[in-house]
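re: that chain from earlier
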Amino acid sequence: MPSTYAHYRMGQQVRTMLDGNEKKIVEKYPQLYLIGLHGPDILFYYKPLKSNAINSIGYELHRHSGKEFFERARKVISGKNNREPYLAYTYGVLNHFALDVSCHGYIEDKINESGISHAEIEVEFDRELMIMDKKNPITQSLVRHIIPSEENAKVISEF
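^ sequence. v structure.
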């Protein structure tokens, strides 16, 4: 639904509102939270110019309900002694899911009214948000906050 910048922006806004244990977890594992903000979209970033086995998984995951992911997440998290990194990632994914669900109807209506593609609407929305935030849409890095590492991959792979 919304694209890269919109998900990052919402995640940053939510992050400032956190308190208690959730805030501590996100502060302790910011990389996992930030990656989680992209949900299954993160798989679209792998060789994005053509279809491949990795980005196809991202499209497939979008056909499933969020309930499936969160039920799996509950099982993964409940089986861990150190739940915090898994919670940080899940908090990010929860943000992703909330924004997608909130925008889904609006975007579908705009597609039907205008004939403009889903991707065009997402990109234009990101551009508008960057302009509102006084960022240059041409030069703004949209992925600088995504830090891949083996440690992060080990956590995420369990979902």
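Residues 40 and 58 are 5 Å apart (CA to CA).
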